[in-house]
């Protein structure tokens, strides 16, 4: 009974939180028009459990069935929870066991046709049934697959059922669950092109283009399932403007066994595909039998050539360039893993605006929609196959299936993207434990052969963290590197990549994962430190945005940019990561921290300061960016470390119209002749450098060291802080931050004014909490609820990593002044109107036109604001240095626990360990047992790391602000225990602002073992 109850509750989850019992679906009538039929509509779904325990399909009238449309991810609909079947690594979102079903009829005209169903991706362990008969099982969640359908064509309904089982953890990051990519029927004659049966290459293009032409080789694989058949295969090439520019023919004797025919087609003066001009060609391939076309397949491709050179790095169409890449996991924030072309295009647009020209699909094959968007937008791709081989990394991951399925899955990956001009590398794995074991080289050999059996035109690489030292000759790492064309390094320092290049001079190298600096949008700490600790206070678990929170294996973004810049032979880097992603909330492993901190952009698509660092180095468009982005949350006179990222040589800073001085980058030149901007100073960012003019600092081969940002120390005063960037004395860009007043209104900004009325079109609406002057309030956390007319809410986000809010609820708190609503169009031509409300704020509305749909009344959807539970009133602190020294320890009555701001950040490969006391921190205590508070008693720690505070200031919360109390007296007669008395006040919280007696040292930290408030 318990299991059935939860199956009902979970299976009914909707964005509005409403459960409707569904009758068995009416059979959809399939009437093919063309070769493929969209098969994403009119499905039903039942979530049987969130444990992954095996179970049969629910009965036909079971109330857990509900209508759904594919692509679909059931995990993103659920609340994050802490339990035995969720992990921080997967975002505390459950997986489980789900069933899908679809009833459909086929017309008699399809009798004798070949009918198959293609899935682009099901996560994971899928089983597909037709009319109760098992068609097949496909374990891997990231590769497509197809089954022939022996379906009825007499008007009798067919029922397709898909069982999906995601036992968490099946991945190291959030995978999503369900049929999360597209599904289609493919209907052909018995004589037809096979699946992935067209391959297009341009052999010797680097040579032929000098003669003004390209040779497009079209290889077509086809079969005849109705006996031996003579056929003509005609391939017609159309240029980016749709004009026919070439045609080729080949004869083929087709049988039940696939055979391949080849045609070479000369293309005069071709338009080359590039990252700046992604021109695409179309190849229409027809199979003709006795003059009649019996099958037609269209293939999109591009004409381009590239090279990875061990001495000169990467070039495209003969032009040398760096790979300015990012890693992207496949989740789409509030949409989970459910594929959306609009969401993908938005991600890539944001990345392109940062200067990105390449993406590594970490760590799995991408969706066809992602590859298509990269082709259209001019983004290079490294397509990656696996995060694990035989040895698993999590209990239920792909390691269970690797030996039996990896060859087929790898070939499927290559087939699916082999015609894409974006793809320039195939990767056979990431950080593979087997690669340093005896079993590794034979596996690598097999995988490399699998790739080359399909495609010999692109190099084969892998991403690895096992080459930070030069491997011993004959070791597994050495053997595998000898087999590969090149190697993606994960977090290598400069000296190690130089050593690898010297040992393996014929191999090309690049950084498959670079930096991994972590940050939270709008949060800052210890600007003068190259590395700093984490705040473990519940509700404040965030990380500094000064590019200075680093784990033991990572390094700063600036270090990675300099290392890459200075080596012509180094092909480039893929930043870890472009976007934050759900799961892997390093360095925290505690509920409800559920998304990563690595991104240059948060999960909502709002840029962090890290984005602007890379933009300053990768984009030629003039820019300047100020940080901190918050010019509100400071005390008068408090010194604020202000940084500017810019690609201009000079930046001048103004506060309320008064110049605070000009700072300038020096113009330098690499040893291979490239010019760049950098300060000239010791940076202290590489302890491995022990010689030269800047020991302890990364030093370029040209002998110079410096930073990629400019700095000022500014005593805070409210107003307007403006940075003006100049080149040659002429202003080219400016940025400003302003002091915000009280929250007054919501401002809505859609990312487009027109969308498709196809039920799939998405509009991304940014909500900002602003003051009366329109300035975003940087600490606003108001709960915003949404109404949508003419469409529906697809998801809500705010980019906050520590959040238990449901991504598909009807309301979301703002985080640092911002939130995001993802709005899905309906199927009717209409105006989509989005309205946002929050208590005490002026309501906002915005509209988007939905075009191309059927006429009809606009749909109106609304959702009640899900109340954000008020946390139980307890102790709080500005900063807690460890997971077990949080403020609640002051109230638990145990003598063995305490609150402390002590932290120890472990050494990295480049930086020493750091433990430096903050100058100030605060703690606050609830006023719960007394109506008026007039005293505080606190017991402080005094030991090798902790010292008594130099001073204590007391204030109380009056409902809007902390107000100093009067007549404060401190009595330290208890030794390390202080009794503080003051004129009694009414309020729910008393705050102690504490000043360290030894700031910046390892013995000036503050700690309290017990504290209480009295009358």
From TrEMBL:
Cited InterPro entries: Beta-gal/glucu_dom_sf, DUF4982, Galactose-bd-like_sf, GH, GH2_Domain-Containing, Glyco_hydro2_dom5, Glyco_hydro_2, Glyco_hydro_2_cat
Glycosyl hydrolases family 2 sugar binding domain boundaries: 96-186
Domain of life: Bacteria
Signal peptide: 1-27
Ranges for region Disordered: 518-545
Keywords: Glycosidase, Hydrolase, Signal
Gene3D superfamilies in UniProt: Galactose-binding domain-like, Glycosidases, Immunoglobulins
Coiled coil start-end: none
Residue ranges occupied by any DUF4982 domain in the UniProt entry: 637-733
GO molecular function: hydrolase activity, hydrolyzing O-glycosyl compounds
Domain Glycoside hydrolase family 2 immunoglobulin-like beta-sandwich: 202-304
Keyword Hydrolase appears in the UniProt entry: yes
Domain Glycoside hydrolase family 2 catalytic: 311-465
Family under the similarity heading: Belongs to the glycosyl hydrolase 2 family.
Name by which UniProt lists this protein: Beta-galactosidase
Biological source species: Lentzea guizhouensis
């Amino acid at each position: 009974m318990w299991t059935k109850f939860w199956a009902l509750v979970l299976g009914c989850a909707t964005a509005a939180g409403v459960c409707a019992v569904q009758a068995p679906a009416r059979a959809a009538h399939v009437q093919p028009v063309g070769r493929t039929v969209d098969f994403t509509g009119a499905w039903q779904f039942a979530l049987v459990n969130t444990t992954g325990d095996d179970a049969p399909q629910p009965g036909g009238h079971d109330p857990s069935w509900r209508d759904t449309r594919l692509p679909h991810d059931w995990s993103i609909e659920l609340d994050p929870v802490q339990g035995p079947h969720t992990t921080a690594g997967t975002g505390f979102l459950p997986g489980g066991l789900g069933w899908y079903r679809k009833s459909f009829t086929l017309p008699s005209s399809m009798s004798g046709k070949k009918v198959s169903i293609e899935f682009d991706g099901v996560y994971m362990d899928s089983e597909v049934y037709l009319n109760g008969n098992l068609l097949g099982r496909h374990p891997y969640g990231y590769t497509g697959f197809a089954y022939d359908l022996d379906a009825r064509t007499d008007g009798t309904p067919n029922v397709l059922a898909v069982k999906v089982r995601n036992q968490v953890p099946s991945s190291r990051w959030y995978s999503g669950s369900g049929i999360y990519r597209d599904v289609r029927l493919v209907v052909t004659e018995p004589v037809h092109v096979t699946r992935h049966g067209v391959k297009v290459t341009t052999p010797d293009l680097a040579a032929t283009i000098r003669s003004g032409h390209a040779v497009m080789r079209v290889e077509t694989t086809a079969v005849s399932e109705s006996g031996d058949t003579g056929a003509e295969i005609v391939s017609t090439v159309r240029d980016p403007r749709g004009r026919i520019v070439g045609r080729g023919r080949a004869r083929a004797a087709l049988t039940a066994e696939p055979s391949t025919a080849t045609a070479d087609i000369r293309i005069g003066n071709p338009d080359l595909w590039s990252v700046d001009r992604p021109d695409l060609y179309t190849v229409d391939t027809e199979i003709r039998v006795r003059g009649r076309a019996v099958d037609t397949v269209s293939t999109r491709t591009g004409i381009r050539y590239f090279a990875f050179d061990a001495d000169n790095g990467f070039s495209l169409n003969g032009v040398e360039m760096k790979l300015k890449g990012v890693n992207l996991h496949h989740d789409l924030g509030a949409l989970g893993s459910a594929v959306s072309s609009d969401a993908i295009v938005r991600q890539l647009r944001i990345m392109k605006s940062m200067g990105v020209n390449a993406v590594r699909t970490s760590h799995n094959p991408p969706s066809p929609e992602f590859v298509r968007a990269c082709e259209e937008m001019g983004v290079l791709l490294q397509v990656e196959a696996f995060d694990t081989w035989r040895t698993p990394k999590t209990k239920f991951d792909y390691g269970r299936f690797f030996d039996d399925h990896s060859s087929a899955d790898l070939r499927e990956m290559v087939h699916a993207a082999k015609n894409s001009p974006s793809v320039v590398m195939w990767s056979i794995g990431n950080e593979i434990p087997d690669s340093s074991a005896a079993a590794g080289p034979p596996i690598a050999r097999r995988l490399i052969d699998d790739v080359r059996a399909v495609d010999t035109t692109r190099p084969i690489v892998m991403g690895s963290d096992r080459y930070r030292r030069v491997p011993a000759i004959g070791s597994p790492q050495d053997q595998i590197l000898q087999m590969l064309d090149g190697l993606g390094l994960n977090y290598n320092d400069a000296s190690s990549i130089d050593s690898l290049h010297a040992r393996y001079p014929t191999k090309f190298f690049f950084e498959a994962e670079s930096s991994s600096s972590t940050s939270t949008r709008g949060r800052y700490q210890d600007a003068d430190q190259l590395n700093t600790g984490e705040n473990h206070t519940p509700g404040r678990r965030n990380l500094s945005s000064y590019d200075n929170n680093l784990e033991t294996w990572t390094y700063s973004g600036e270090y990675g940019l300099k290392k890459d810049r200075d080596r012509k032979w180094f092909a480039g880097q893929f930043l870890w990561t472009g976007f934050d992603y759900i799961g892997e909330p390093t360095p925290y492993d505690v509920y409800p921290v559920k998304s990563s901190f690595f991104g240059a952009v948060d999960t909502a698509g709002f840029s962090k300061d890290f984005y602007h660092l890379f933009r300053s180095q990768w984009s030629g468009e003039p820019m300047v960016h100020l940080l901190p982005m918050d010019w509100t949350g400071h005390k008068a006179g408090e010194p604020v470390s202000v940084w500017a990222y810019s690609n201009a040589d000079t930046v001048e800073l103004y506060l309320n119209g008064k110049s605070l001085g000009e700072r300038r980058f020096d113009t330098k030149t690499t040893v291979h002749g490239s010019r760049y901007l950098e300060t000239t100073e010791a940076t202290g960012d590489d302890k491995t450098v022990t010689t030269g003019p800047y020991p302890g600092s990364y030093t370029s081969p040209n002998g110079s060291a410096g930073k990629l940002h400019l700095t000022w120390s500014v005593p805070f005063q409210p107003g307007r802080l403006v940075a003006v960037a100049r080149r040659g004395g002429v202003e080219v860009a400016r940025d400003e931050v302003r002091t915000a007043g009280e929250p007054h209104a919501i401002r809505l900004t859609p990312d487009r004014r027109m969308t498709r009325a196809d039920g799939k079109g998405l509009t991304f609406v940014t909500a900002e909490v602003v003051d009366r002057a329109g300035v975003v309030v940087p600490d606003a956390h108001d709960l915003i609820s949404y109404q949508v007319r003419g469409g529906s809410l697809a998801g809500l986000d705010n980019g906050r990593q520590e959040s238990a809010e449901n991504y598909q609820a009807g309301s979301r708190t703002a985080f640092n002044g911002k939130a995001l609503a993802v709005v899905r169009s309906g199927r009717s031509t209409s105006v989509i109107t989005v309205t946002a409300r929050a208590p005490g704020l002026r309501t906002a509305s915005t509209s988007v036109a939905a075009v191309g749909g059927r006429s009809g009344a606009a749909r109106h959807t609304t959702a009640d604001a899900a109340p954000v539970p008020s946390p139980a009133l307890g102790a709080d602190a500005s900063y807690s240095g460890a997971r077990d020294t949080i403020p609640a320890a002051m109230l638990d009555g145990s003598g063995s626990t305490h609150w402390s701001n002590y932290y120890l950040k472990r050494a990295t490969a480049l930086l020493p360990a750091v433990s430096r006391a903050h100058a100030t921190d605060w703690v606050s205590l609830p006023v719960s047992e007394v109506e008026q508070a007039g005293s505080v008693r606190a017991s402080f720690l005094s030991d090798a790391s902790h010292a008594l505070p130099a001073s204590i200031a007391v204030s109380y919360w009056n409902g809007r602000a902390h107000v100093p109390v009067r007549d404060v007296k401190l009595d330290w007669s208890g030794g390390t225990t202080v009794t503080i008395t003051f004129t009694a006040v009414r309020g729910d919280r008393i705050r102690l602002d504490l000043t360290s007696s030894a700031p910046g040292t390892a013995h000036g930290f503050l700690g309290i073992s017990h504290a209480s408030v009295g009358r």
